[in-house]
Inverse folding.
């Protein structure tokens, strides 16, 4: 028997309230969170453990996607503690060390510890170094495991990611560091591998001979909200592309790993990301469109311009939308463009990968019929629903030979009755089991930053160029359409349902 402590830095922040707590609750509800686990919050606010516990209950009531069951919450929150302190102050770590020893004194050993850094990336090294200095991460002498989860973005560039890695490697063993990207926890993203490698019908056509192009979209209705301080310094590209969008890209395009374990999967993904380049040589800028939302309306809600959001510079030239054309320089993908786009304050929340296949020869059809035939599109839906759709051409059931696109669809909801997961459940559980397969390796992070560096560098050279404006509630700046129109292609409308 063992016991554990789950220590959350940034415990009063948005991430803990919105995502972590619901995820821990879902784990507890399915019996996957250890019963004897103490929850320890660390943050700057002055709170008692009781007030902290109440704030966690409030967070569950507000953000849980399933019905709130007080028995599950009581089990999860049976042992809640709070440490008030600044992450720069040694006193914080001294108090934490005393608290953990006191908690573990009454519990079975070994006593495991998971430290979750729900903090901005520039603080990771400070916190990890201090944890180590106070012996909190030492695994010696029959102590249980000590693991540290750090949030994305890991650094802000290739150099800063490497520097951060070096700093963390000084104080943590490789096996203790878990770089999280919650997209990897989404069932639909994990399913990409199963779909590709678990079904014999896909791999033979999963290449440049059969695939015309790939579109990866993460469209969000959410605005910058109150995250201006982080977001204005980060922008859509750094916030979403080298991490969330590239997780999907890697899963779609990587070569089959020899095993489903951390080493093989990380290697396959890092190799793939290493082969990602701007879509065409020469002018990097021709492969990218940046946008920034202006005032508009999303549904019935009026949305002020990005520049009027709290903590955002009134003359900000940070992008809230980015569309990219990329290529993947491998034998499998030569000549197949990958179009990626992500943006905030758009008309609809939709995350998907759409794989458009080459058209079939249409000799047997009349010219008019052939015009109505559509390319097959395989759509892997990630949000708001999780599922898979395939656009096929079918004959309509009337005497004439009328053909057109139909959608063949599978939805996770219809098959699996799991509560709607947040995405963090699987990852936290895996970390507790010591399985890093669905986390990011240093190689993946570095390859991701390397792939976006040409765009960031090109923008730095043309500093002062404002992103293209788009009204909140739209599909993004019209210039993004030109990126595909130039190649004789078009984005799938984000309003569109299914694959049809
Ligand atoms: C976060 C980004 O990592 O992911 C946010 O920082 C973004 O800006 C969020 O809104 C999207 O996650 P999801 O799961 O809602 O698609």
């Amino acid at each position: 028997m063992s016991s554990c402590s789950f220590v959350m830095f940034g415990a009063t922040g948005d991430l803990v309230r919105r995502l972590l707590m619901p995820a821990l609750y879902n784990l507890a509800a399915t019996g996957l969170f250890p019963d004897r686990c103490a929850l320890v919050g660390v943050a700057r606010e002055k709170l008692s453990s009781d007030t902290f516990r109440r704030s966690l209950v409030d967070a569950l009531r507000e953000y849980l996607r399933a019905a709130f069951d007080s028995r599950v919450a009581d089990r999860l929150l049976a042992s809640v503690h709070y440490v008030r302190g600044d992450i720069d102050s040694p006193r914080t770590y001294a108090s934490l060390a005393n608290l953990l020893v006191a908690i573990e004194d009454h519990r079975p050993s070994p006593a495991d510890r998971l430290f979750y850094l729900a903090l901005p990336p520039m603080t990771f090294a400070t916190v990890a170094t201090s944890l180590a200095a106070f012996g909190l991460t030492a695994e010696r002498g029959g102590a249980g495991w000590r693991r540290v989860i750090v949030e994305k973005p890991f650094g802000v560039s290739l150099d800063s990611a490497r520097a951060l890695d070096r700093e963390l490697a000084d104080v943590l063993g490789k096996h203790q560091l878990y770089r999280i990207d919650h997209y990897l926890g989404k069932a639909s993203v994990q399913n990409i591998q199963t779909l590709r490698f678990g079904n014999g019908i896909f791999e033979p056509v999963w290449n440049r001979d059969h695939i015309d192009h790939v579109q990866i979209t993460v469209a969000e209705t959410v605005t910058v909200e109150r995250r201006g301080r982080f977001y204005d310094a980060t922008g859509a590209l750094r916030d979403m592309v080298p991490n969330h969008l590239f997780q999907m890209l890697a899963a779609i395009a990587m070569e089959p790993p020899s095993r489903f374990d951390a080493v093989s999967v990380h290697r396959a993904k890092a190799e793939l990301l290493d082969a990602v380049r701007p879509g065409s040589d020469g002018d990097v800028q021709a492969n990218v469109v940046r946008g920034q939302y202006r005032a508009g309306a999303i549904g019935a809600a009026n949305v002020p311009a990005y520049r009027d959001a709290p903590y955002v510079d009134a003359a900000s030239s940070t992008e809230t939308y980015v569309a990219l054309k990329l290529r993947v320089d491998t034998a499998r993908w030569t000549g197949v463009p990958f179009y990626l786009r992500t943006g905030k304050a758009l008309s609809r929340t939709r995350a998907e990968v759409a794989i458009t296949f080459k058209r079939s020869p249409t000799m047997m059809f009349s010219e008019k019929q052939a015009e109505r035939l559509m390319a097959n599109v395989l759509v892997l839906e990630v949000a708001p629903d999780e599922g898979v759709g395939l656009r096929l051409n079918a004959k309509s059931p009337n005497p004439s030979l009328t053909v057109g696109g139909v959608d063949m669809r599978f939805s996770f909801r219809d098959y699996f009755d799991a509560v709607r997961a947040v995405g963090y459940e699987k990852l936290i559980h895996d970390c507790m089991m010591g399985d890093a397969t669905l986390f990011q390796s240093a190689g993946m992070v570095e390859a991701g930053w390397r792939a976006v560096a040409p765009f960031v560098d090109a923008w730095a050279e043309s500093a002062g160029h404002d992103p293209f404006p788009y009204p909140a509630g739209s599909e993004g700046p019209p210039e993004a359409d030109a990126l595909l129109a130039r190649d004789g292609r078009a984005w799938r409308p984000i309003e569109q349902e299914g694959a049809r």
About this structure: The chain has 14 helices and 18 strands. The pocket of 6-O-phosphono-beta-D-glucopyranose is lined by residues 152, 182, 220, 222, 239, 351, 383, 423 (CB under 6 Å).
